[in-house]
């Protein structure tokens, strides 16, 4: 495998599968099987999952709900998804640890960098929940921050499209895909890879990002093996 330690970023919306809301158990099982396949080959895996299938902080309407309150609700949504993913992984026989940026002793360990790194070294899959623990930061930012802290080799952003395009391929049939692109080119072209805070963190720490289609069976294995799948963002 090309990458020894990876951080896999999944969107909460991806867990909906064909549903309009919540968690599709079949989708959850499919992701667990993909992760198990690469983990069985000795890859150390950390995961951050969003909460958009349940609640997003930016949904909060200012006249009804404070943005800070909304963001904390979003963090709790990521914990629901994290618990579901943890159960799915363990049902496949994998050892996991769920770590939360907000104290929830009954269901998760508090996030401590050295402990997280040790779990990865012991072959446990580590799920980071509750974002960064602070409002105004997305789960993309949490993924970038945790990946840097645990010294991951790469961030793998699993989406429903197979890479980065010149425009939204679901809306523009003439959009063309990039196999590789630099951080500076992403800035210059105004492409939407991650939010700017998360993306800048990766750029400043020379942490490559691979955007790929997580819903295509076998893609996760191909990406970690170094095959040309998705789009690689690098220096």
Write out the strand line-up for the largest beta sheet, numbering strands in chain order: 4-3-5-2-1-6-10-11-9
- Record field, number of beta strands: 11
Q: What CATH architecture do you see?
A: 3-Layer(aba) Sandwich
What count of domains describes the coordinates?
Answer: 1
Helix-strand pattern: EHEHEEHEHEEEEHHEHE
Q: Fraction of residues in helices?
A: 25-40%
Describe the structure.
This protein has 235 residues and is α/β, with parallel strands linked by helices. The protein has one domain: Acetylglutamate kinase-like (Carbamate kinase). Helix content is 35%, strand content 20%. It is built from 7 helices and 11 strands. The protein has helices spanning 25-39, 67-91, 113-121, 139-149, 183-189, 196-204, 219-225, and strands spanning 5-10, 44-49, 96-100, 109-110, 125-129, 154-159, 164-165, 177-178, 180-182, 209-213, 231-234. The strands form 2 sheets. A 9-stranded mixed beta sheet has the order 4-3-5-2-1-6-10-11-9, with helices on both faces. A two-stranded antiparallel sheet has the order 7-8. Helix 1 crosses helix 2 (67-91), helix 1 runs parallel beside helix 7 and helix 4 (139-149) runs parallel beside helix 6 (196-204). The longest helix is centred in the middle third of the chain and has 25 residues, at 67-91. The model has no long low-confidence stretch (mean pLDDT 94).
